[in-house]
């Protein structure tokens, strides 16, 4: 995007995010949902909207939604209502969607986010409401006179999270989505997979001249199914609207569809054709009661949020923000790290333990999705190293055996004769001198300038000490003796 | 009587095709319903709790446990006017892209 556009215009962006709740069954019936299975196999009369059926609300979906409300600090309505939203589309079997309208279960709240440069922002929320997902239309070949509908997704519980129009750039919009996705994942209520559509985003974009207080006319963009699409579409739309205003025109309120392949939007409908959803209270469902006692019970289960975790790791263990962020992005590792710290006797070894986890263990964790070494074993290994009982080099060998499934680093090191370090009381010096006496030709070579002979001597010492000497100290000592 | 245009708009939203006589009949019928509502709106409801539901019942919540489906899913496809490839077949959708949830 041409940055000069932003000198003249201020973008105002609001996002609507739909997140599928990862419950075992659908919102209003006990049919399970999984992505990517045979079409129309996860259906029943409720899903298909057959005559005579009644919806029954999934308690877990409400619990998940309340957890989200608590995590973002929203006001939870003790008594909210479901409403019917009417439109006709083949993927909507009943001809209406059960949603919430004038009495959503949650209002207000905010999501904190961190931009790539470390700056923090707070995006305030208008509301969050519960609703059901639609099915999916498939478009057959260009020449075909029919389309295909799969209702597997129909009726999956959704939360729609509506932000205030307070987002000022594409980068902030993506930062907000990432932060929101981390919260959803931390809570374990949505897998946040944009490609599979378990998290979807629409963006409302308007621009106004810098300094103006009146908001410009907005357009709504749909079909933003990747972070890149969100960023590209918003930047495209800001630039397009600036072009319209610069040419003396007016932005037309419209719903646009983002085409990621062409990198442009096309008009889906304009204001004149705007949908009229004819909301009314859902007569099949009495109001949704969320008593305080239930909220308190769910609050007790709400885990620490990602950004708060990152801040705490930096403050409590002096981790770098970069390292803390890796823990934030690999949430199973954070409690593991803290168990290691507790086993190692406190925060003093925190930084060392984090280094071991992030350099030695992270790869295996990412490959298998499992933490391969028990916390007490990693803690014991680091204690051995920091206590001077095991050299860093030998510790890596022991660690490899832990990775392979063995236990108890102290016993492993002891059995391999690796415990204790060589180097005190001139022991090393004696060993070096002995080596030099036994290899006069090599000594001569070194002194004539073939300094890579040093490697031979260091290697010999390490072999004789079974790696128990500090390689750097040995190198320094040999240099001194050979000089 | 309500405006002819209003009737046509409501009919279009409900995907109903009305003949000229039907439009006229609806103007009268819908007009009478609206006057009835107007009459009700004239009642003083100060201090009266709005009725969210006609029955005084609490919403029953269901445990999140999958149930066996009683009817094999293929039976629904068979009952549809048209199907193929495991999908319900509908007349070609002309609007671009996937509607998704709104």
Offer a few descriptive terms:
heterodimer, A: about 475 residues, alpha+beta, Arc Repressor Mutant, subunit A, three-stranded antiparallel sheet, 16 helices, B: about 100 residues, mainly alpha, Histone, subunit A, two-stranded antiparallel ribbon, 3 strands, disordered C terminus
Explained architecture:
The complex is a heterodimer of chains A (483) and B (102). Chain A is built from 16 helices and 18 strands. Chain A has 483 residues and is α+β, with helices and mostly antiparallel strands. Chain A folds into three domains: 4-298, no CATH class; 306-412; 424-482, Arc Repressor Mutant, subunit A. In chain A, strands 1, 3, 7, 8, 9, 12, 13, 14, 15 and 16 form a ten-stranded mixed beta sheet that branches. In chain A, α2 packs across α5 (292-299), α8 packs across α9 (350-368) and α15 (453-464) packs across α16. The longest helix of chain A is centred in the middle third of the chain and has 20 residues, at 227-246. Chain A is elongated. Chain B is mainly alpha-helical and 102 residues long. Chain B has a domain at 4-41: Histone, subunit A (Orthogonal Bundle). Helix content of chain B is 38%, strand content 9%. Chain B has a two-stranded antiparallel sheet with strand order 2-3. In chain B, β2 and β3 (87-91) form a beta hairpin. The longest helix of chain B is centred in the first third of the chain and has 22 residues, at 20-41. Chain B is flat, with a radius of gyration of 22 Å. Residues 96-102 of chain B have low confidence and may be disordered. Classes of the chains: A alpha+beta (483), B mainly alpha (102). At the A-B interface, β2, α2, β10, β11 and β18 of A face β1, α3 and β3 of B. β11 of chain A pairs antiparallel with β3 of chain B.
